Amino acid sequence: MARQAGFTLLEAVIVIAILASLAGLALSQLAPVEDQAFTGAARAELATLHDACIRWSSDLGALPPSLGDLASATPPPTVPAGLASWNPDLKRGWRGPYVTSGRRVGTTDLADPWDDPGGSRRPYRYAPAGASATITSAGPDGVFGTSDDLSVSFP
C-alpha cells in the first residue's frame, strides 16, 4: 500500500498550537505600546485643552466655566453680552469655537483616550479656581488621584 503525501491530523494540530502561541506572545507585547499611545494622545489633548483655555481667557478675560464651552460654536450664556463677538478695537470678545472636536472626529467628545470597561467615555476633570485651573485625565486605571493620572495646570 502506497503512502499518500500530506499532513496528519496530529501534525496540523501541532502547527496550529505553535501559531496560536506565537500570536499570543505578539499580542502580549503590544499591550504596553497601546498604553504608550493612549498616554501620548492624552498628553496632546491636555495640551490642546490648555491652549484653548488660555485663548478663551485672553479673549474673554476669564477661564471657561466648563470644557464643553470650548467646543461651542456660539457664545455660551456665560459669556457677557458685550463680549459675544470679537471687538477689534478692544482686542477682546468671542472667537470660538476654541476646540473643533474631541478625540472622535465630528464630536465634542472631550474625554480621555481610555474607555471604561463598559465602553463609555471618561471625561477629563476640569477644576477652575479663579484665575487658575487644572485639567486631569484619570489615566489608564480610570481612577482619579492615583499615580498614573495626567494633568495640566495653569495660568
Task: Lay out the secondary structure.
Layout: H1 9-60, E1 111-115, E2 121-123, E3 125-129, E4 132-137, E5 150-154
Antiparallel strand pairs: 1-2, 3-4, 4-5
Output mean pLDDT.
Answer: 83
Into how many domains do the coordinates divide?
1
* CATH-derived topology: Glycoprotein, Type 4 Pilin
Could you give the order of strands across the largest sheet? Answer: 3-4-5
Radius of gyration: 25 Å
N-to-C order of helices and strands: HEEEEE
Number of helices: 1
CATH architecture: 2-Layer Sandwich
Q: Uncertain segments of ≥5 residues (pLDDT<50)?
A: 104-108
Gap from first CA to last CA: 87 Å
Number of extended strands: 5
Largest sheet: 3 strands, antiparallel
Q: What structural class do you assign from the helix and strand content?
A: alpha+beta
Overall morphology: elongated
Roughly how much helix do the residues carry, as a percent range? Answer: 25-40%
How much beta, percentage-wise? 15-25%
CATH C-level class is: Alpha Beta
CATH superfamily: Glycoprotein, Type 4 Pilin
